Amino acid sequence: MIRRSKICRAEMVDRISILPDEVLHLILSYLETKLAVQTCVLSKRWRYLWTGISTLDFDESSFSDDSSFEEFLNHVLLHRDHSKAICQFKMSYGNIEDVDITKSVIDFFVEHGRGIQDIVLSSNNIERDFLPHSYWNLLHSWDSLKILTLEDISINANADYEFVSLITLHLSYCHLWNDDVGIDDLLNGSFKITAPQLKEFRMSFIDYEEIDPDFKMILSFPKLISFCFEGERMMPVSFSQKPVLQNLNVDYCPWDYIHFINVFGAIGGAKFVTLSYRTINALSKFAGFLKGKQSPFSGIEELKIIIRSLVDDKFSFTVPSSVLTFLRISFPSNRIKFVYKENKNVDDEEDI
Predict the structure, then answer these.
(1) Is residue 300 part of a domain?
(2) Burial class, 55, CB count within 10 angstroms (exposed 0-12 / middle 13-18 / buried 19+)
(3) Which position has the higher pLDDT, 308 or 349?
(4) Does 285 map to a domain?
(5) What percent of the chain has pLDDT over 70?
(6) Other Cβ atoms closer than 10 A to 272
(7) What is the pTM of this model?
C-alpha cells in the first residue's frame, strides 16, 4: 500500500513536471515561498523552478526561530532569478524594526524590486512596533508600486505620508501613535496621507489612544472612487478635495457618532452604498442628530445591507425612515438588498 502510494505521487509529479516553466512558476507563486522552495527536492526538473516565481511570501511564524527565518530570507533574495519579474512581495514577521532583516529587504527592493506592484507588510509583534523610516522613504518614491497593504503595524500619526503612484491602500489593524511621546499621551497635530492616483482606500479597525480635540486625519485622494471603513472607533477625518465616490462600504459600531456622521459629510456621495446591519441601527439611533444634517448623498443607485449572522426564515427588517431620508432614498423606488454573510462569505442575497 505504501509503495503504491509513492508511485501515485511520483506519477502526479511527473504529469505536472511536463508543464512549461511559466505555468509551473505561476502555480508555485500561489504557495508560501518556504513551501515553493521545498519543491526543489522533488527532482532535478524542480531544483531551480522556485527561483522564477512571481510572488514572494515570507512568514516568520512558519520558522522555529528568528535566525532561521533571516537565513531563509537572505537565501531566497540572493539566489532567485533576478531576470524574472516580481508581482507581489508579502512579509509577516514579529519585529518589523529588525535592523538586519530591514537592511536585507530594502537592499533587495533597491536592486531588484523596482518592478513590484503589490506589497503586503504585517507584524506579529503585539508590542508597539513602528515601520522603519527606510521603508517609508522608499515607498514614498516608488513609481511602480500600485497596491500597499499594512497590517498590525504601528504608524507615527504626527507625520505626512505621500505616495506618488499608489492606486490601492489598505490599513488593517494598524496602531497610530505619536512617535515622540509616550503611548498614553493624546494624538495631536495631524495625520496626512497624500496619494494623487489613489482610487481605493480601506481602513479596518484602526487602533489609537485618546485624541486631542484638534487632531485630524487629512486625506488627499482627488481620484478616489472606493472608500471602505470597518471598525468601532472613528477619528476626525477630512478630505482636502471632496471625492465623488462610486462605492462606499461602512461597517461601524460607533462610540463617537459625531465623527462617524461627519465622515459621510466629507464625501460627495456614492452610487453604490454598502452598510452593515449594525451601521443602519446606529444611524437610526441618531435620528435627531441626522434631522439637522444635510444629506451628502444625491444619487444612490443601490443600497446593500450586510447581515453578518445567521437569520431564520421569519427575519424581517425595515430601514428606518430617518435613515432613508439621510441617504436620500425614496423607498421603494430605489433598489435595496439584504446580503447575508457568514464569516464574510456571501451565503444568500435577497431583494427587499
Answers:
(1) no
(2) buried
(3) 308
(4) no
(5) 82
(6) 15
(7) 0.85
